[in-house]
């Protein structure tokens, strides 16, 4: 948000205070300042001059030589402009001025000296395009800078919006000046909401239906407007705050927004179909033209302003094009309203339209300004070129006119929360300066909150603590160490386990940890079928992609993979997080589950199934190594079907009879849904089950003394169908109960012309270890023969 210091001085004499002190007070007691700049300071050396003479350039057909004066000094200027004549008053950029990144020099053009450059509106930044030098009015004072001429001599403060998101009263010049006056203890000179206006009798037929969809809504008829340009004061102030001047009626609405923070809107009376106004909700697919030349199809329950049966505005966000004020407008209807912030936020989310009015409404305005702002608008209309307007009695309603907020507290509470001894007189003085009404009895206080801060802002005693603390300055509160006993912290096994898991994945195997929102879309909730029915919808509805609490960590990881799939060859991610599950429709709270999810994005083409299978096996090995790292070696992998995984690449890990983890290649239908171009390998571990197993078994010693004899190994290659799983033969070997067998795993899988179409060669490696004697050739042959026999007896073909 931008604030004009010149405008602020209208309401409180900031010029009496050193500017550095003003900035310091804003930063320490009100909000953060992002930037402080002199408005168009580069135009200080652009002055007004009058052309005294004009001649053809002696050496160039398209140039002219002129003599111009600022009233005391003459300048020789060479120009290519064709629209200047003797007697014209024009802006002259003196040498040293920088325009569009170029410095104006005292130079020679074709042998004739030129002491500057005449400026167009484009070069002054007042128009996007211009056809020649700007010709100023004949009564323009000579020798002054264009900054002074156009009322641009001003300092602009850029306020960090996030630091005042809870303070709707500060989103305007008067409110900010009021706050500054109280903090700096200087007077507040004027109060624009006290403007005096006499209404014409009658309402010109306008009526407003009462509605629960708005806190307050008023309209009034205004006749005899004359559309033209705005006066320099209003035009320059809008421009300094980043708003384009349109005409002397629309500019008044924008001026009020910046001055008082109360959005208003003007309708062309002749374009309205009815004299009746209603605040209502939209129907699905309803549409009408807006001021930004769009006609979006609206979802259900968007807040609208209806004129008769015709929608004329998105309430609090944007007006309709068909009822807009134009050059031919003579009679207008002024709207002044305060809508519920929840409804305006809903409109912003659903339409993706965010305007200056909507930004203020979504903070939560109070309705007390609705009627007074109409009087101020009339005053500005008269001042801005409409001296003959007739304003009729406003019509409407205000549901919250009698609302008050009273907070009861005591001095002891305030001192305790502040950590500073402060007197009752000091507390009373600070709160009264800030606009609060204070009634004190002994050490008890009853505080009535001012209307401009009673909506959502100051509602509880702790809010008063903040008001006092920021006013006296947080730096004045002494820092003290917390007074608390030093005790041995209670052991948290789950946190210990999580730290060890993170250490392994991040430091040992080089995976990257990610954090995702705990929200999900309805499509995300369908990824794991087992949890589809337990999805929990958020009551305060978020955007569609955040409408539910997540039931799976997979969608978040997949979306992260999508964002990075074209940036990195290797994408290996993990996340530790919660999922939320609501069983049934009772009043019981939803259940939280804690998971570790892992994702590895394939480096190969989706059709390279052999390489993808190797990557799948590598991630299985990584998960297995994690269990070894946690001192849990007695796990068992088995094939388990999961609908979100490829049918032939879906495993589950069991420990002590409990399923702890799953691993699989994401089904292609979900890859397509999330637009992931590479194959996705996923795994997840139930941390609540794992911590129980870790506590029971992870501290046991599984140490086996190393053998004094060398290890041996055997390899057997079997020819299988391409779709055959590999684990049955490994499981078969386990049943043989070979005493020397330490482990069996798939070493390689080969496919090619040599093994035939639709076939694959699977090489199994058997690790052998003897603890009482060295392996002999006879024992190797005996073991090899038994493995070959087992394979043949069970229908396998040796290769």
TrEMBL record:
Main subcellular location: cytoplasm
The reaction(s) this protein catalyses: tRNA(Phe) + L-phenylalanine + ATP = L-phenylalanyl-tRNA(Phe) + AMP + diphosphate + H(+)
Record's keyword terms, sorted: Aminoacyl-tRNA synthetase, ATP-binding, Cytoplasm, Ligase, Magnesium, Metal-binding, Nucleotide-binding, Protein biosynthesis, RNA-binding, tRNA-binding
Organism encoding this protein: Leptospira yanagawae
Molecular function as annotated in GO: phenylalanine-tRNA ligase activity
Co-factor(s): Mg(2+)
Protein name per UniProt: Phenylalanine--tRNA ligase beta subunit
HAMAP family: Phe_tRNA_synth_beta1 (MF_00283)
Residue stretches making up the B5 domain: 402-479
Membership in a protein family: Belongs to the phenylalanyl-tRNA synthetase beta subunit family. Type 1 subfamily.
């Amino acid at each position: 948000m931008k604030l004009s210091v010149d405008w602020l001085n209208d309401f409180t004499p900031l010029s009496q205070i050193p500017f550095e002190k003003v900035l310091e007070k804003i930063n320490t007691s009100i909000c953060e300042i992002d930037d402080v700049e002199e408005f168009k300071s580069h135009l200080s050396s652009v002055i007004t001059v009058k052309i005294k003479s004009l001649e053809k350039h002696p050496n160039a057909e398209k140039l002219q030589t002129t003599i111009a004066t600022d009233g005391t000094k003459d300048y020789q200027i060479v120009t290519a402009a064709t629209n200047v004549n003797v007697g014209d008053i024009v802006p002259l950029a003196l040498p040293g001025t920088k325009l569009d990144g170029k410095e104006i020099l005292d130079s020679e053009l074709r042998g004739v000296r030129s002491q500057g450059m005449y400026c167009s509106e484009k070069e002054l930044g007042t128009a996007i395009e211009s056809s020649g030098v700007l010709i100023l009015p004949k009564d323009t004072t000579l020798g002054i800078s264009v900054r002074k001429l156009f009322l641009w001599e001003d300092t602009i403060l850029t306020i960090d919006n996030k630091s005042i998101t809870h303070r709707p009263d500060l989103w305007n010049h008067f409110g900010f000046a009021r706050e500054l006056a109280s903090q700096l203890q200087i007077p507040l000179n004027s109060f624009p909401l006290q403007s005096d206006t006499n209404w014409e009798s009658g309402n010109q037929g306008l009526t407003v239906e009462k509605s629960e969809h708005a806190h307050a809504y008023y309209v009034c008829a205004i006749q005899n407007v004359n559309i033209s340009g705005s006066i320099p004061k209003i035009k320059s102030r809008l421009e300094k705050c980043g708003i384009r001047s349109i005409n002397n009626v629309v500019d008044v609405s924008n001026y009020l927004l910046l001055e008082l923070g109360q959005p208003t809107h003007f309708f062309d009376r002749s374009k309205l179909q009815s004299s009746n106004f209603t605040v209502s909700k939209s129907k699905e697919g309803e549409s009408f033209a807006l001021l930004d030349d769009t006609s979006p199809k609206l979802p259900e329950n968007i807040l609208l302003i209806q004129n008769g049966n015709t929608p004329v505005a998105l309430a609090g966000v944007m007006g309709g094009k068909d009822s807009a004020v134009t050059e031919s407008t003579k009679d207008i209807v002024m709207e002044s309203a305060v809508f519920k912030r929840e409804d305006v936020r809903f409109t912003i989310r659903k339409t993706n339209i965010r305007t200056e009015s909507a930004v203020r409404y979504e903070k939560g305005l109070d309705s007390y300004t609705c009627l007074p702002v109409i009087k101020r608008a009339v005053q500005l209309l008269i001042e801005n070129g409409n001296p003959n307007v007739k304003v009729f009695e406003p019509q409407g309603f205000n549901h919250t006119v009698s609302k008050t907020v009273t907070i009861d507290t005591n001095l002891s509470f305030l001192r305790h929360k502040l950590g500073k001894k402060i007197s009752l007189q000091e507390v009373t003085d600070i709160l009264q300066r800030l606009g609060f009404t204070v009634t004190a009895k002994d050490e008890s206080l009853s505080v009535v909150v001012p209307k401009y801060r009673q909506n959502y802002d100051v509602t509880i005693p702790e809010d008063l603590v903040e008001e006092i603390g920021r006013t006296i300055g947080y730096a004045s509160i002494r820092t003290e160490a917390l007074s608390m006993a030093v005790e041995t912290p209670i052991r948290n096994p789950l946190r210990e386990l999580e730290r060890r898991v993170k250490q392994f994945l991040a430091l040992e195997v080089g995976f990257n940890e990610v954090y995702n929102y705990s929200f999900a879309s309805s499509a995300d909730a369908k990824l794991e079928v087992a949890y589809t029915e337990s999805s929990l919808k958020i009551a305060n509805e978020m955007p569609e992609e955040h409408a539910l609490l997540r039931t799976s960590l997979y969608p978040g990881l997949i979306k992260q993979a999508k964002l990075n799939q074209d940036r990195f060859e290797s994408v290996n991610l993990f996340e530790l997080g919660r999922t939320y599950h609501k069983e049934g429709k009772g009043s019981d709270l939803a259940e939280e589950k804690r998971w570790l999810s892992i994702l590895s994005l394939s480096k190969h083409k989706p059709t390279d199934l052999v390489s993808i299978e190797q990557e799948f096996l590598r991630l299985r090995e990584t998960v297995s190594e994690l269990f070894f790292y946690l001192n849990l070696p007695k796990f068992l992998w088995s094939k388990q079907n999961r609908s979100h995984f490829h049918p032939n690449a879906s495993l589950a890990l069991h420990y002590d009879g409990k399923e702890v983890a799953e691993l699989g290649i994401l089904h292609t239908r979900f890859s397509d849904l999330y637009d992931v171009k590479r194959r996705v390998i996923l795994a997840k571990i139930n941390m609540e089950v794992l911590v129980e197993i870790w506590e029971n078994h992870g501290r046991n010693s599984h140490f086996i003394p190393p053998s004094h004899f060398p290890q041996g190994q055997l390899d057997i290659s079997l020819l299988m169908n391409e779709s055959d799983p590999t684990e049955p033969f490994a499981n078969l070997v386990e049943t043989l109960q070979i005493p020397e067998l330490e482990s069996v795993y798939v070493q390689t899988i080969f496919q090619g012309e040599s093994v035939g179409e639709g076939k694959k060669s699977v090489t199994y490696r058997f690790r052998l270890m003897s603890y009482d004697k060295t392996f002999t050739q006879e024992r190797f042959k005996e073991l090899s023969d038994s493995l070959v026999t087992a394979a043949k007896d069970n229908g396998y073909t040796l290769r």
